[in-house]
Amino acid sequence: MKRAIALALVGLCLLSSFLFFPQAAQGRVADECYGNWNRCRVNAFNMDVSWFRMTMVLTVCDIGLGKCILEF
Amino acid sequence: MMKKSFALSAATVLLFALIAGRGTAGQRSVKRHAAGDVKLDFRTDDDAVFSRPVSISHDRDAVYVIDAEENEVRVFSKKGTFIRAFGRKGQGPGEYDSPADLDVSGDRIYVTDRFNKRVQVLDRQGGYLGGFRVPFTPDQVCVLSGGRIILSHLPLGIEGPEPMVHGFSEKGDLLWEQAGSYYSGERVYDTFRNFVVMVKGDRDDVLVVHKSDERGVFRFDKEGKPGAPVRVTDDYEFRRISLPIKGPKRQVSGFCWDASFDGDSLGLLAPDYTEENDLGPGRAVFLIAPDGLIKDIIDLPAAVTRIDMDGDDIYAVDTENSLRIFRREQ
């Protein structure tokens, strides 16, 4: 009986970690993608380039964000 | 008959005077001033040329320039003599990851450390005294009376509007949030729309100026209470530009490149058209009176990206990333 309970507990732990970790990893990836994107657009503004050029850089930042999210 | 025509003439003159009076009541004669370069004290070029200058400010005896790429603050005398630099890249005390702005209050310097998401408090020599973390990437900082620390930040704009101005206690407790961001879902446009300059006003408050598409200058006191916004009059023209993005949001009206506050005037550095019909940093500073009317215009000898007004002097960074000091001619 004890063995069955222990096995059930182990199984439950494994199942919950299987369910939890992919989501946590996904969350971390999304955070990283948005972090890089934010860094990219802040740098764009810090460059003080003219606005047409800045739009180009911001668009590149956006493409990078989309690519980053799609890769994961 | 003579009396009647005299009365008629007098009435006509009075009417014209009244009309003329009404006409000038809403306008003010705007003075244009030239500003010349102040010859800087001896310096080496390396000290006064920056990699990515993002902020210039002053206190009673020094001028501070933040270089975001070098992760340092450079300190100059008000005559342009290099005094010291402090800061380096990192995550520890006195280290930065893209510092954004600073304000001096008493003997303390408050620096926003953007990607480390914190505010660092330093002594005037750059020695670390403390700091606190914030849940966003802080941009500009103004320190008001009672140790109120006001921060602005560029919102991510992923899920909807976010507050852009935040009030903290000296210990780093969040006290209030204000100035909800614009959200249309068009990320590039929204980024332009939400890029603001925050400056310290003359009523122990902060003024929030949008760089585009907004004439209203918003005020918040140290408790986060909004003051009556100042609407800059139409005499100060928007600089319109079409951005290379799809959809109806591609038209942007440039309002200011940078701003500064001195005395009772808000100084707006107007953007200017480039040869390619693009919009870049300008060389004219418009002084806006508290009622929103243009008071004076200062023509600078060069296009600049950052300004900081101090009486007749304007500390600035030009488009070559060099420190310049201009003096207004009367």
Description:
The complex is a heterodimer of chains A (72) and B (330). Chain A contains 2 helices and no strands. With 72 residues, chain A is mostly helical. The longest helix of chain A is centred in the middle third of the chain and has 45 residues, at 2-46. Residues 18-22 of chain A have low confidence and may be disordered. Chain B has 330 residues and is mainly β. Chain A binds chain B through residues 34, 38-39, 41-42, 45-53, 55-56, 58-59, 62, and chain B through 52, 54, 68, 98, 114-115, 137, 154, 156, 158, 187-188, 191-192, 195, 241, 243-245, 252, 254, 271, 274, 276, 278-281, 305, 319.
Total of DSSP H or I helical runs spanning 4+ residues of chain B: 3
Main structural class of chain B: mainly beta
Distance between the termini of chain A: 43 Å
Radius of gyration of chain A: 21 Å
Average pLDDT number of chain B: 90
Can you tell me the overall shape of chain B? globular
Strand order of the largest sheet of chain B: 22-23-26-27-1-30-29-28
Structural class by sheet pairing and helices of chain A: mainly alpha
The CATH class of chain B is: Mainly Beta
From the alpha carbons, calculate the radius of gyration of chain B and give it in angstroms.
22 Å
Low-confidence stretches of chain B: 13-25
Mean pLDDT of chain A: 78
Strand portion of chain B:
over 45%
Number of helices of chain A: 2
Describe the largest sheet of chain A.
Answer: none
Overall helicity of chain B = 10-25%
